[in-house]
Amino acid sequence: MKQPNRSARWTIVDFDDIPPVPCPCGKSRRALADVASFPGTIHRTEISTEARAHYHRRLTEVYYFLECDAEARIELDGELVPIKPAMCVVIPPGVRHRAVGQMTVLIIVHPKFDPDDEWFD
Fold it and tell me: Residue 9: what pLDDT?
């Protein structure tokens, strides 16, 4: 549960209390969009085996891999890169990407996530 702080000095988010929404990668729980003092958003995303390659024109994403199987990969501009838990990758605007395999990823998005900035070839 998001703990309100009337002084606006901090925000606490419980991702388990955020309903998941469909995304090109699977299902995402998106937080901090309404926090003016934080310049981005943070998503906990459950990647499905049907994840679609996409890119962003404005957004930079940082993927931090929380859980994944031994065969997990991330595709970056057509190149498959092996990943494992505790790895991190910065994906700048224009890089076509998708996660390959089932995994849980913490995604930091800057600036704040905009669903209109998801592009497909």
Answer: 83
